[in-house]
Design brief:
Layout lengths: L3 E5 L7 H16 L11 E5 L1 H11 L4 H13 L11 H21 L10 H10 L2 H9 L5 E8 L5 E7 L7 E2 L2 E5 L4 H7 L9 E5 L2 E6 L10 H5 L4 E5 L21 H13 L1 H19 L10 E9 L5 H6 L7 H7 L10 H5 L5 H17 L1 H9 L16 E6 L9
Helix pairs in contact: 1-3, 1-14, 2-3, 5-7
Keywords: Hydrolase, Lipid degradation, Lipid metabolism
GO molecular function: hydrolase activity
Protein name: Patatin-like phospholipase family protein
């Protein structure tokens, strides 16, 4: 049987795009009479804000329509103050700590933990996320596994925390390991703690606590957890647009790059490059196997995995540039000296733009991108033969790739 996995990457407020894609997928499912049934994914793997979206799917795994609509409603009504403190006291105190650390760090010997306090997000997740509902989805067979990945600042290891319907032995690789755990709010917060912007959280690991932050950092194999958990086909939804050639020509050069511009490129390397590199690596392996087919056999641990990716068709940076003034006044005051409210710094601001006008624009874009590939997505998820219309220029072909990996115990590779 085919085992389908959903992988969602991070990107702060950009992850609203994923909710739009899922809403589009629910519309596609409805066209084939499957909207009120379970989600079309057996395994859900999330990282950073994608972990939060994954949790929303996991607790509503029995009803795809409800799961998709709930996520879209959450993102379309969210505000920055729901995610991090935006009051003048909170933002002012954070800014003062950073200035003090830069000016008198040698004397106070205490560095600030993050630019923003994301305690409101913890409260929001505590209201919306119920770990018992994840376990109920697993017990009912509506879901086979749910996984969340975070980076340990303490040891530099990537840790995938997972729950599964049946016993799957943990795996270990260089600087990567998996731990069976009952996923809670702390795991979601830790995985989505964007470096420097949000503080790290302590999580228990092998009998002690380590400090964890955003799981997309140094995540060179984002597809790996899904394959270890038994996926034979993967739908990966990114939250970072692949910039078209010439897009930066529309942004004023403005001389030396601002701190926000540099920060935006740094965050892009975190949230985009890992998935792209992993896909390219798998394509190279697939090409090798097509030339030397005799090395592809179960005994050696090689097996085919279909992968289809969806990412924004329009630059999110340009969308953010038109909405950056909707950030709370205190946040704009903090970002303005860094260049975060300028067009060339909009990429950095987009990760913090938890405001309805921006997130709704991303939801609409995600739904549009999904519907533009509806025939191929229906074929990929439901094995529906696409109509032969002779022209489907908007579709991105699903790629069959292979990965050298040991099949997890209890899962047929």
């Amino acid at each position: 049987m085919k085992t389908t996995s959903l992988i969602m990457m991070g990107g702060g407020a950009r992850a609203a795009y994923q909710a739009g894609v899922l809403r589009g997928l629910a519309r596609i499912a409805a066209q084939h009479g499957r909207a009120s049934g379970r989600i079309p994914f057996d395994i859900i793997c999330g990282t950073s804000a994608g972990a939060i979206n994954g949790a929303g799917m996991a607790i509503n795994a029995a009803n795809f329509h409800v799961a998709a609509d709930s996520l879209a409603a959450l993102w379309s009504g969210i505000h920055a103050e729901d995610v991090y403190r935006t009051g003048i006291v909170g933002v002012g105190a954070s800014g003062a700590r950073w200035l003090s650390a830069l000016a008198f760090g040698w004397a106070i010997r205490r560095a600030p933990r993050a630019l923003f306090d994301n305690a409101p997000l913890g409260g929001l997740l505590s209201e919306l996320f119920d770990p018992e509902r994840v376990q109920a989805s697993l017990d009912a067979g509506d879901l086979q596994a749910f996984a969340v990945t975070a980076l340990s600042y303490t040891t530099g290891r990537h840790v995938t925390f997972y729950q599964s319907h049946r016993r799957i032995h943990p795996w270990r690789r260089s600087q990567r390991l998996a731990v069976e755990a009952r996923i809670g709010v702390d795991h979601l917060l830790a995985s989505s703690s964007i470096p420097f912007l949000f503080p790290a959280l302590p999580l228990e690991l092998e009998g002690h606590h380590e400090w964890f932050g955003d799981g997309t950092m140094r995540q060179m194999s984002p597809l790996s957890p899904a394959i270890h958990l038994g996926a034979s086909r993967i739908l990966a939804i990114g939250a970072a647009s692949r910039q078209r050639p010439g897009w930066f020509d529309t942004v004023p050069a403005g001389g030396y790059p601002s701190l926000a511009q540099v920060g935006g490129q740094a965050l892009a390397s975190i949230f985009l490059d890992g998935l792209s590199a992993d896909l390219e690596r798998l394509q190279h392996i697939n090409s090798l196997l097509s030339r030397v087919p005799e090395i592809a056999n179960d005994r050696e641990g090689w097996r085919p995995v279909q992968v289809m990716t969806i990412s924004p068709s329009e630059p999110i940076e340009s969308i953010a540039a038109t909405h950056v003034q909707q950030l709370p006044r205190t946040v704009r005051a903090l970002l303005t000296p860094l260049g975060g409210t300028e067009a060339r710094g909009a990429a950095f601001a987009s990760y913090l733009l938890f405001e309805p006008e921006f997130t709704q624009a991303l939801i609409d874009l995600g739904e549009k991108d999904a519907l533009a590939q509806q025939h191929e997505l229906a074929a990929f998820l439901y094995d529906v033969i696409p109509p032969d219309d002779g022209d489907d220029t908007n579709a991105t072909p699903a790629r069959t790739v292979t990965l050298d990996i040991e099949p997890p115990a209890g899962v047929t590779a």
